[in-house]
Amino acid sequence: MILLKGGRKLNSIALHADAHHLLTDVWTSLGAIAGLGLVQVTGQSFWDPLIAFLVAGNIVWTGIRLLLESAAGLVDSAISPAQQAQIKKLLQNYEEQGIRFHALRTRRAGKRQFVEVHVLVPNHWTVKQGHDLCDRIEREIAEILPHTHTITHLEPTDDPLSWTDDRLL
Fold it and tell me: Phi/psi of residue 124, each to 5°?
């Protein structure tokens, strides 16, 4: 269980897979003991192959899950919907202050996570005010989502080009 918790905490596919491998060994041993015990107690020999079949099914199911999780770890994907909701909730606090956001993009590559968001501020703000806000947002995202690298892109609210994602950079 410690290995499984460590795999989750560190977002490590290798630790997670190793923990599940060890758990299948535990279930295999318990299944063998249970099968032999039931045959001994009941005198019915069908218990041993039945439990062996269930243990084998657990091993196959665990193997398939680990293969799918490992393959997913090799391909970039968006961060979880729950984590995206945390980011959106954080940004909503700023929207109440007149700050706007768009082009929120997230991705996960292995154990690293990346967030990109465009931050739209009033035209009268200084570069320092905008920069300080972006730094604060990046820190707050890092606090709620450790191991996440955030990139903010500062834009003026009143510029029509700020609201398009298809412009050439």
Answer: -75, -5
What are the start-end ranges of the H helices in the chain? 2-10, 13-42, 47-74, 81-95, 127-144
Q: For 96-118, what is each residue's pLDDT tens digit?
A: 888 999 999 999 876 789 999 99
Distance CA 118, CA 163 (A): 9
* Sheet containing 112-121: order of strands: 100-109, 112-121, 148-156
The DSSP code for 96 is T
User: What is the C-alpha separation between 48 and 61, in angstroms, rounded?
Assistant: 20
- Whole-structure pTM over 0.70, yes or no? no
Helix (H) or strand (E) holding 120: strand 112-121
Residue with tokens 């009941």: 42
Token output for 26: 């535990």
